[in-house]
Amino acid sequence: MATTCDWQNLEKHGVTTDEVDEVLFNDPLDFDLEPSKDGNDRILFIGFTYAGRLLEVGVEYLHEEDEHIFHGMDATKHYRNAFEKRK
Amino acid sequence: MAISRKRSEALQKRIEKTKSDARDRVIKRGIMHFRADEDMMSELLQVAQYKKLPAGSMVRSWVSERLSQEHDYLVTADRPMQDEPVLTASLKTIPEWHNMEEAVLSKAKKLAEELLALAEEQIKLILENMGAGVVVIDASGLIQSVNSGFERLVQQRADRLSGTNIENLIISEISDRSLSVRLRECCNGGIFSAQIRSTNNELVPIELTATAFQIGTAEQIMLCILDASLAHAVL
Predict the structure, then answer these.
(1) How many structural domains are present in chain B?
(2) Which of A37, B103, B155, B231 could form an S-S bond across to B199 if both were Cys, CB 3.0 to 4.6 Å?
(3) pTM for this entry
(4) CA-based nearest residue to B208, from B219, B192, B220
(5) Same domain, B155 and B192
(6) Does B79 lie at the interface with A, CB-CB under 8 angstroms?
(7) Interface predicted TM-score (ipTM) of this complex, two decimals
(8) Is it the case that residue B130 has pLDDT exceeding 70?
(9) How confident is the model at residue A10 (pLDDT cuts 50, 70, 90)?
């Protein structure tokens, strides 16, 4: 299984791959997104980094167990509220 | 925008795997950030300065000490209850043995382990925060480890690079010998220019130095790689 990233997107939003891993591991909320153009499932994870930054991280599930992190940025108000409500 | 639908079992399994793989990477990386208010940071730095220790190393030793106090919990958390009395009894009775030699040896071993871990953490911090890409290869050119500078340079993650042959990434101007042979020859012998292939097949000019070292009986080579695109653009 391999994980690839859209480095340009992460860099644009000042998000590191370390932060992405922290969010994915740190009990995130997950939302289904519209499938990609290729019909792959896409999930948006919302969670905190260890430094307390609330991020949204988009993962596309490719064939053969591979996954692609296509998006990462500070959580928008909509998802921030959703995360707050979970508490 | 999020959609509402019934999620398949297979997708749910992949999501759980994404989380567990991320956990493995976080553990392997061994770096954790946390937020502290100004007062706490100021006090922390003062204590570190007084103790003549890097603040991060000092906090690490505190966490290590605290975790050893939580040992009973860590050991028993995933085990059936009947295992608990055996484990906790053997740990807690050590001071009661009055066996000074064992106690001193155990303390010395713990201290040595902590010092080793501190040194390792310092090296890790230096490697992770330097701008240049650093990659360690074995004698046959297989990548053993990389720092984040190298990840950025080739736009690939460390877990994908590990085990790849460096010859697939670096294109040397000398084609009559294999790159790993050429690298061994130029170890500690200055800088040489080459090109590196990033994930989108783009060739980036680089300058690299190589240093050979031994781990046990195995020979390894550390490459320090600088992106020379700017210099090339100016020239």
Answers:
(1) 2
(2) B155
(3) 0.50
(4) B192
(5) yes
(6) no
(7) 0.89
(8) yes
(9) very high
Q: Is residue B112 part of a domain?
A: yes
CB of B233 less than 8 A from some CB of A = no
Q: Which residues of A touch B160 (CB under 8 A)?
A: 2-4
A67 touches chain B (CB under 8 A): yes
pLDDT, tens digit (0-9, with 9 covering 90-100), for B57-109: 888 888 888 887 776 666 554 444 444 444 444 444 445 555 666 777 778 88
Query: Which residues are within 8 A (CB) of B146 and not within 5 positions of it... i.e. 6 or more apart?
Result: B133, B134, B135, B136, B158, B161, B162
What's the CA gap between A30 and A58, in Å, rounded?
9
Backbone angles phi, psi at A27, to 5 degrees: 50, 60
How confident is the prediction for chain A on average, in pLDDT? Answer: 90
Residues B148 and B107 in one domain: no
Chain A: closest CA distance from residue B156 (Å): 7
Of B72, B99, B128, the position where a domain reaches its end is B128
Residue B5 touches partner A, C-beta closer than 8 Å = yes
